[in-house]
């Protein structure tokens, strides 16, 4: 049985995840995200501001120091596409990922990703992460403080 051809939304999600796994966000910056791209991290109680365009990429690049080789490898647990409204909801978990000091990094994310009209570029990412894990790592100085 052959593997089904990925949908346009699935292709975008695969490229998005691959960029983090490689530690190189250049593909996001150069062709996957729109010029007015924005990235939001929830819950809002964490106090992390929404970042837009280059501001996000510089911030994300600055956080790369926290991970071994700057990489965060993820596995898709579930992907729900809602093409009519140009969105995907993706549940991922980190796999085979370590902090720079060798500590295993176990994190789960839920992303709501909004795409442009062509379904080929990301306009907005709303990320919900395991805030308990993040706060614990932040208090130990192991991830970026905000």
Automatic annotation (TrEMBL):
Top-rank lineage group of the source organism: Eukaryota
InterPro entries: NTF2-like_dom_sf
Protein name: SnoaL-like domain-containing protein
UniProt source species: Exidia glandulosa HHB12029
């Amino acid at each position: 049985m052959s593997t089904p051809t990925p949908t346009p939304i699935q292709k975008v999600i695969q490229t998005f995840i691959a960029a983090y796994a490689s530690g190189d966000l250049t593909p996001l910056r150069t062709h996957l995200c729109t010029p007015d791209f924005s990235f939001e991290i929830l819950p809002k109680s964490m106090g992390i501001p929404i970042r837009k365009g280059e501001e996000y990429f510089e911030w994300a690049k600055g956080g790369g120091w926290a991970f071994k080789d700057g990489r965060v490898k993820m596995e898709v647990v579930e992907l729900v596409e809602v093409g009519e409204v140009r969105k995907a909801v993706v549940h991922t978990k980190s796999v085979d990922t370590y902090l720079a000091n060798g500590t295993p990094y176990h994190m789960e994310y839920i992303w709501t990703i909004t795409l442009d009209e062509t379904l080929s570029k990301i306009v907005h990412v709303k990320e919900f992460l395991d805030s308990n894990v993040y706060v614990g790592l932040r208090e130990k100085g192991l991830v970026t403080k905000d």
